């Protein structure tokens, strides 16, 4: 392998590696994990999934530290206690939730019970948000809020304005508007509704707790000024920013295999380049430590031949018939030899007899 070929391969491989890395980064951005967020100011990563209470499928296999109920907060002077879950519905079985369809009872993430009635203060939401530097989780679309007349809402005006001309103009405008209102009422227009259709909602402010002896999470009820918006404060170590840990796609054996494969490739390619450019080797001798690998290959081939020949002896064959034939041939040849020897003896005796007679 020439260096120019190696450089060309690297030139083609690097863009592919870069594009693959960019695709992986895009995939990580697209694969957003619920109940997680990254701070836009500090870049810290927040994962609230440890606060999400989920009942195990098999209670017998659940760990000792696993919770079997949602988080609770005392209402103190409100007159009711609150039950909350983070990024998911509560694990309690709810029935007869006021003002909420039965199909949506299983999606309630926060509720309270008062006078024997169950009130939802928000449906599940798995997307925390940042309000400046405050990490907030919102639940909306709960039970209907109490009916509040619009007359109880205070109107806002300009305080401390000393411009008399503006006051006069405002008075003239108010008179004109009153006149228009009277005309419109006489004309048969309906008076706008004096009630606002609102639903209960929840705002949870999450604060970082660095105390190692503190529990995982503590939820405190802060206020509900209109019995429609409920404000809570949660202190937890999960609300402390950290570093996002990427999910490992390969197991330990896979990682070890990839490292070993890279090491082998570097060893072979680097050795070939060195043997060709520095040692001026050609053919198979370009491989690093060629003599070592050649000795190993010859040893393996010899062992294969030995094993194959030893196994071939146990194969069934016609050796028995060959032995019988060989024994028969050996016996016939031995008989022939015996006959030839007796003939020679007889001839010798005849010759001796003739000599004695003479």
UniProtKB/TrEMBL annotation:
PROSITE patterns the UniProt entry points to: MRH
Key words of the record: Disulfide bond, Glycoprotein, Membrane, Receptor, Signal, Transmembrane, Transmembrane helix, Transport
Keyword Signal included in the entry's annotation: yes
GO biological process per UniProt: vacuolar transport
Main location: membrane
Gene3D superfamilies reported for this sequence: Mannose-6-phosphate receptor binding domain
Stretches the record annotates as Disordered: 147-197, 332-358
GO cellular component, one term: late endosome
Signal peptide, first to last residue: 1-20
Composition-biased stretches (Basic and acidic residues): 169-193, 340-350
Compartmental location: Endomembrane system
Domain of life: Eukaryota
Membrane-spanning parts: 254-275, 287-308
Listed InterPro entries: Man-6-P_rcpt, Man6P_isomerase_rcpt-bd_dom_sf, MRH_dom
Domain MRH: 33-242
The protein, known as: Mannose 6-phosphate receptor domain-containing protein
Source species of the chain: Aureobasidium pullulans
High-level lineage: Eukaryota, Fungi, Dikarya, Ascomycota, Pezizomycotina
């Amino acid at each position: 392998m020439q260096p120019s070929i190696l450089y060309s391969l690297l030139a083609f491989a690097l863009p592919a590696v870069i594009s693959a890395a960019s695709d992986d980064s895009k995939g990580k951005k697209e694969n957003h994990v619920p109940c997680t967020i990254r701070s836009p100011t500090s870049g810290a990563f927040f994962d609230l999934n440890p606060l999400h209470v989920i009942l195990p499928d098999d209670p017998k296999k659940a760990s000792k530290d696993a919770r079997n109920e949602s988080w609770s907060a005392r209402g103190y002077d409100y007159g009711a206690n609150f039950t909350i879950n983070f990024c998911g519905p509560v694990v309690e079985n709810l029935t007869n939730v006021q003002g909420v369809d039965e199909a949506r009872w299983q999606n309630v993430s926060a509720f309270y019970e008062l006078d024997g009635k169950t009130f939802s203060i928000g449906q599940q939401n798995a997307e925390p948000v940042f309000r400046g530097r405050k990490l907030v989780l919102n639940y909306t679309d709960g039970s209907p809020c109490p009916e509040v007349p619009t007359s109880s809402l205070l109107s806002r005006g300009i305080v401390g304005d000393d411009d008399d001309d503006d006051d006069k103009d405002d008075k003239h405008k108010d008179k004109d508007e009153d006149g228009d209102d009277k005309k419109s009422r006489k004309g048969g227009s309906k008076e706008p509704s004096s009630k606002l259709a609102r639903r209960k909602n929840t705002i949870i402010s999450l604060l970082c707790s660095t105390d190692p002896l503190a529990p995982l999470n503590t939820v405190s009820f802060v206020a509900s000024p209109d019995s429609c918006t409920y404000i809570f404060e949660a202190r937890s170590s999960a609300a402390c920013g950290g570093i996002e840990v990427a999910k490992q796609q390969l197991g330990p054996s896979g990682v070890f295999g990839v490292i070993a494969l890279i090491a082998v490739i570097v060893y072979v390619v680097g050795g070939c380049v060195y043997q060709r450019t520095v040692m001026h080797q050609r053919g198979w001798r370009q491989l690093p430590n060629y003599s070592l690998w050649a000795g190993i290959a010859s040893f393996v081939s010899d062992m294969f031949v030995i094993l194959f020949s030893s196994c071939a002896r146990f194969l069934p064959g016609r050796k028995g018939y060959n032995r019988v034939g060989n024994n028969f041939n050996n016996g016939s040849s031995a008989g022939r030899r015996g006959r030839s020897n007796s003939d020679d003896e007889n001839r010798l005796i005849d010759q001796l007899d003739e000599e004695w007679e003479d």
